[in-house]
Amino acid sequence: MPSHLSFSQHLVGHATSLRPPFLYAYSGMWLHWLVAGGLGLLLTELDALYLLSSMAVASFALGLVIYALRARAYPLCINAFSYAASMATPFAAGASSAALLTVALIASLVSTHVLFAREYRLYQREAGAEGTPPLPTWVAAGTATLVLSLFVFALALMGGAQPSGS
Q: How far apart are the C-alpha atoms of 4 and 75, rounded to whole Å?
C-alpha cells in the first residue's frame, strides 16, 4: 500500500470511517440513473437513447446537489434547476428541449469543475502538498473548451439552426 492516499482514494474516503460527500454524491448519481432510467424505459414509450441520456444528465445534476448538501457547498445547489430541466426534457418537444438539456449540462459541468477543484485543494492540504496549483492547467483548459463548445451548440439549437450532421 502506498505511503499516502491517491486523489481517487481521498474522494471515496479510503482509510477513514467517515464517508466523504463525494462518495454519497457518486453513489446517489448511479442509483438515480439506474432506477429512473429503468422506470422510464418500463413506463414510457420514449426513445430509449434520448431518455437514458436525459436521465444521465439529471442523475449527474442530482449527484451535484447531494454533494452540495453534504459538503455544505450551497452554491452548487443551483444544479437543482439542471435536475428539473433534465427530468422534464424527455417529455418536452422540439429544439428547445434539446437546448434546455444542453444548458443543464453546461451548468453541471461548470459545477463539476468547481467540485473537483475544491476536493483537490482539500486533498493537497491533507497530503501536505501546499503551494501547488489547485488543478492541472490542462483540466481547466479542457473544461473551458467543452463548456464553450456546448454553449455554442445550445445557441445554435435556440436559434433554430440545425447542427451539422443532423
A: 31
Cell numbers describing residue 120? 483537490
Name the amino acid, one letter, at 9: Q
DSSP structure string for 8-59: HHHHHTTT-SSPPHHHHHHHHHHHHHHHHHHHHHHH--S-HHHHHHHHHHHH
CA 106 → CA 34, 40, 60, distances in Å? 22, 24, 11
CA-CA distances (angstroms) from residue 82 to 10, 19, 25, 34, 110?
A: 27, 26, 15, 18, 12
> Is 0.85 topped by the overall pTM?
no
Per residue of the chain (166 residues), what is the pLDDT tens digit? 445 667 667 676 665 556 688 888 889 999 999 999 999 899 988 888 888 888 888 998 999 999 999 988 899 899 999 899 888 887 776 667 777 778 888 888 888 888 888 888 777 777 766 665 666 777 777 777 777 776 676 666 556 544 455 4
